[in-house]
Design a protein that fits this description.
150 residues, alpha+beta, 29% helix, two-stranded antiparallel ribbon
């Protein structure tokens, strides 16, 4: 029974990946995406798949640390030998390198990165852009690619 559930979940995750990855992702002449925007979109899609897999298959809850009602993705819950991600994706701020208890216990995040990854109450991944230097982000604290990567 467990094997059937894992198989069905895997098929759903693969179907989501095929649906979510942009068709022009590998087109070098694509006018719609800069290299930074393509990298941002890849990380966002990877985190959405991992969060969905964690919710449906691993813990039946969101892999988050809650700070004042903000659900920050706890990357340490998603990475590792038994995790859904091999490594912490590029572009994650230090606030993301925590487990669900808020303890920093994995590597791969840096406060020189601009995106803090979060999840809404429905499990949808979004980001906020944090200015390292004034004016880095097109719109500070806004979701989506903000003209800078990582």
């Amino acid at each position: 029974m467990r094997l059937a559930i894992v198989l069905i979940t895997t098929i759903i995750v693969i179907a989501l990946a095929v649906t979510l990855i942009p068709t022009d992702l590998f087109s070098p002449d694509s006018p719609s995406n800069s290299d930074g925007e393509s990298a941002y979109n890849l990380v966002r899609d990877e985190l959405q798949l991992a969060t969905t897999g964690y919710l449906t298959d691993i813990n039946h809850g969101l892999p988050v640390v809650i700070w004042s009602s903000i659900r920050t993705i706890a990357m340490c819950e998603l990475v590792g030998p038994d995790g859904l991600l091999r490594d912490v994706p590029d572009g994650c701020r230090v606030a993301n390198c925590r487990d669900i208890d808020g303890i920093a216990d994995c590597d791969g995040c840096a406060d020189t990165n601009h995106y803090e990854w979060r999840v809404d109450e429905n499990g949808n991944v979004y980001s906020v852009c944090v200015d390292i230097a004034d004016g880095d982000c097109a719109i500070v604290d806004a979701d989506g690619y903000q003209g800078i990567w990582p």
